[in-house]
Amino acid sequence: MPVRTMLLLCFAPFVIGALQGCGGDDGGGGETSGGSALGDCPPDSAAQADTGYQALQTQCAPCHLSTSEGASRIGAPEDVNVDDPASVTAEAEEILAEIQIGGANGGDGMPIGSKLSDDTIEAIRVFLACDAAQ
Known about the structure:
mainly alpha, 5 helices, globular
């Protein structure tokens, strides 16, 4: 198989995922609705949502706490804090987009190597979709 075809097959899912949030909504960032990049809150998803919440708290808290300041944030935006439910709800789509990119390319400031497993990313997505819908 030609190298170009292999690269296309490897990067196509990332391009598609990045484009999911594109198109049409110029009405301010962070708002979520039924047709958002977060997808739907699946029925009977309490356990998976809890797993997603726990993953946010353990994986993201070192840089994304409201009490973290300066160098301890390692460049994390001041307005995205996993210990603040309003911040998580307001920034849910951005949070999901960043963890989907993860450390594979360094994200937009995320540490290299911080790519989460697909199961963990899905659990966080479910938590964000269910939490943001409330």
